[in-house]
Specification:
3-stranded antiparallel beta sheet; alpha+beta; 2 helices; 71 residues; single chain; globular
């Protein structure tokens, strides 16, 4: 993640930032802060990603791609 972040404009990506909900135009952080975003990358355990994505797979205008990586 740090390698990707280093190539982007500062403030474009936030690492180690817990998200509690996906919003219409971004996310809601555990601090309660709302962050607007045109795209969101969810890089977390599958069970947490499933909670965040619950009910969104069939939403109009929503694109969901899943990549599973073994450790």
């Amino acid at each position: 993640p740090e390698q990707l972040a280093s190539r982007l404009t500062p403030g474009t990506i936030r690492l180690n930032t817990p998200v509690v909900a996906l919003a219409e135009q971004g996310v809601v952080l555990s601090s309660g802060e709302r962050v607007e975003a045109s795209a969101v990358v969810i890089a977390t355990e599958g069970s947490i990603a499933a909670q965040l994505l619950a009910g969104r797979a069939n939403s109009a205008g929503t694109s969901i791609n899943t990549n599973t990586h073994g450790t």
